[in-house]
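User: Can you model how 2-acetamido-2-deoxy-beta-D-glucopyranose sits in this protein?
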Amino acid sequence: MASPLLCLAAAALAVVAVLVSTTEAWRATPPPLPVLPIPSAPQLKWQCREVIMFFHFGMNTFTDSEWGTGSEDPSLFRPAGLNATQWMDAARAAGASLVILVAKHHDGFCLWPSEYTAHSVRASPWRGGRGDVVREFVDAARARGVDAGLYLSPWDRHDERYGEEVAYNEYYEAQLHELLTGYGSVSEIWFDGAKGKNATNMTYHFQEWFQTVKQLQRSINIFSDDGPDVRWVGDEKGYAGTTCWSTVNRSMITIGEAGIEKATHWVPPECDVSIRTGWFWHKNETAKPLSQLLEIYYNSVGRNCVLLLNAPPNSTGLVEDADIARLREFGAAVATIFGTDLAAGSERGAGFAARNVLDGRDDTYWAPTGEDGRRNGYWIELRLRRPGPGAQAFNVVRIQEHVALGQRVERHAVYVDGAPAFHGDSSIAPQSVPPPNLVATRESAEEAHAPGKDGSGETTAPFISKDESAAAGGLRAAAARVQMHLNPRLAARWWCWSWSSTL
Ligand SMILES: *[C@@H]1O[C@H](CO)[C@@H](O)[C@H](O)[C@H]1NC(C)=O
Ligand SMILES: *[C@@H]1O[C@H](CO)[C@@H](O)[C@H](O)[C@H]1NC(C)=O
Ligand SMILES: *[C@@H]1O[C@H](CO)[C@@H](O)[C@H](O)[C@H]1NC(C)=O
Ligand SMILES: *[C@@H]1O[C@H](CO)[C@@H](O)[C@H](O)[C@H]1NC(C)=O
Ligand SMILES: *[C@@H]1O[C@H](CO)[C@@H](O)[C@H](O)[C@H]1NC(C)=O
Ligand SMILES: *[C@@H]1O[C@H](CO)[C@@H](O)[C@H](O)[C@H]1NC(C)=O
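Assistant: Here's the modeled complex, given as structure tokens:
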């Protein structure tokens, strides 16, 4: 390897030892310059959440459908045992710190007693017509220390004003106002672009809606197909593309695009997917197996997205026990996979020292002082114990970028014992991309890697096998050295990152 900028020397007994830099990387230096665009504080907080949850609940729960017609009788809505606290326990089991409730789906039935329509919980027998699911939801979230978000469908198949541009937009805006003033802090608002092919024509006043939202809730993130704060990844499978920039040119954004380097706006994508087949609860459906949920995790969180996982409460008003158990398995698996940082154990330091890559914190990072790696990138090498008895085995590598200062790493390659194991590319088309289920990105360019059984770098053995043996702790690789090569974008003066690898 050509003059590694950094190298991690092995300590006799420790898993990984001390990072040694060929330069005085940890002398006092100012932070790197930001590369615009950078995330807003609410966006950065949102990206660090990694996994958030969706609750699709409403008239469809009682009619066994996904898209209601709008003509449902409100008396059908009677969730006898609704307990939003139980929903929060489901969310926390999955490790989610933000929960989003569908307050009104396309059928127009409102889960709160809106002053602007009769088609709501007020007309239902539930809690004698005095119930408010949105209230119970946000109260339960707060009590459990989870942030709340709301979904309000623009497409409304019930309301007679739908199709009358001014009247309907005013109605919608009034409901936004109700939801964003009556229920405390709302962290995310969801504008769904879904609409039936032959639905009535209707122009939505998105710009006015967005302005209203921001004026009422300053630290909210607005989701829609194209932002402004969070954009749709473009599918409902929970998979992002292998190239996935947080940056886009908003003026010409297309749904589901990979994002572009050197763009004008920071609009990270969100991957929405249900743990079941449908978004709403159906008696005949069950939760996806853990292996599939983990594969989704690697292809969403692992590719620079936030994963929005839907768990539909049933007609009793509870998330099924089996679904909660699955979410608990999922949360535990993610915590276990990233629970042991094999690279940990080096000394810690302040500033921007190389050893900051190993301190397990999001707010510290390494930044090279020189520009010598600017053209060809930088190498970092971690020396682990020799293979053989007592070898250091691992099957995931996580690489992250300190994106508070912008997204700059455009390429990376991982070598295990000198053999190329994996590479990824942030900036060009997904031909040269990693096999599925190997990638894990957090704030930005993070990779989870599954080398072959013998550490040869073959990527044929996926970390998560269909039989879920990985969840039982199956190990796939042992290695002496892990080397990573990262290319910053050429125009950038600085880049920085942190990483961890785990069993
Ligand atoms: C609601 O669910 C929570 C959490 O499962 C539980 O502790 C609580 O007792 C339930 N409340 C009622 C009224 O059943
Ligand atoms: C579209 O319109 C046709 C004819 O009116 C109707 O049969 C069909 O159900 C409609 N499709 C949807 C998705 O509403
Ligand atoms: C919606 O408007 C478009 C363009 O004006 C028109 O072609 C289409 O027929 C309209 N659809 C309905 C359902 O009115
Ligand atoms: C994005 O916008 C920037 C700044 O206006 C421009 O230089 C760049 O060419 C645009 N990129 C694409 C792919 O349109
Ligand atoms: C379950 O039932 C619903 C409604 O009857 C149906 O739309 C859906 O396709 C079924 N799901 C499966 C997995 O068969
Ligand atoms: C809803 O889920 C709860 C918890 O598993 C269960 O006790 C209840 O019977 C379920 N309701 C229906 C209608 O299946």
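A couple of observations from the model: The chain is about 20% helix and 20% strand. The pocket of 2-acetamido-2-deoxy-beta-D-glucopyranose (ligand 5) is lined by residues 64, 277, 282, 284-285 (CB under 6 Å).
User: Helpful, thanks.
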